[in-house]
Amino acid sequence: MAPRADDIIDRRRIRRKLTFWRVATLLVAAIAIAGFGAWGMRDSWPGQGRDHIAQVKIGGTITEDGELLRRLEDIAESDSVKGVILSINSPGGTTAGGEAIFDAVRRIAEKKPVTAQVGTLAASAGYMIASASDHIVARKSSIVGSIGVLVQFPDLTGLMDKVGIKLEEVKSSPLKAEPSPFNPTTDEERAMIRAMIMDSYEWFVGLVIERRPLSRAEVLALADGSIFTGRQALDLKLVDALGGEQEVIAWLKTRGVDEALEVREWKPRNTGGFLFGQSMLRAVADAIGLPGGSADLLRELGGERLFLDGLLSLWQPASGVTGER
């Protein structure tokens, strides 16, 4: 029996309604995704929010961290940041990393007051970064100092002899790729490394002389690699006060920063956004009754991008000779 014209019209009308509601559902899902994305990123960099005091935590091994440098740059440019607290807990790290962060902190200090709050440790490059601030506060039992430069490299020649390994090499000049863990270190190689260390050491000493109320003779007396407690560091003028957040906020007040302002931590961007986005898209697809593959469709439509911060910082350590501050 052939279908009647009325039946055909009804079926087409139903299909149109279903298509409309499917499209409407996808739009509602997209809005929900955007809302969840905004909520999930609410603790991200608060640069354009209310006036506040920005806190940046600098911990672990210091490297030339591109994400951190961009964060510091945004803090410098943010009109809502009225003062900055650097919370430092680091044993030091690479020379270039300390230099890069030092310079970034100084650029902030040209626009707004910056103070450093030392936790357990601010040594070597960690102290270098603290000295970039306008005021350093440490705990009585904090460890501060270790002003100096170090280069370390292993000597594997004894092990190679024991296991019967011999290295053959052809190079353009005697100092190329030296010192090497596969050859005994020569006097010429040691002289080259020492010249490099002393040049970097003089630069480090110069930073401390520039930033601290100490003469060159006083800094040189302290720059023998020694570490000090916060109490000792205060007497030696390596720090300005003892205490914690209450003391750094009190100092910021003397620089015109309202002590009632909220202290907000500027955290690293969330690098787990991809997984969060995937799971959220699947949840939205399931909630609205779409088949499993629809999460891929939402992703292709751009939904997943709402959960990605777009900022990734990757670091791969180089092999061979390493330098530390």
Automatic annotation (TrEMBL):
Pfam families: Peptidase_S49. The chain crosses the membrane at residues 20-41. Belongs to the peptidase S49 family. GO terms for biological process: proteolysis. This is Signal peptide peptidase SppA. Residues 109-254 form the Peptidase S49 domain. One of its GO terms (molecular function) is serine-type endopeptidase activity. InterPro entries: ClpP, ClpP/crotonase-like_dom_sf, Pept_S49_SppA, Peptidase_S49, S49_SppA_C. Keywords: Hydrolase, Membrane, Protease, Serine protease, Transmembrane, Transmembrane helix. It comes from Aquibium carbonis.
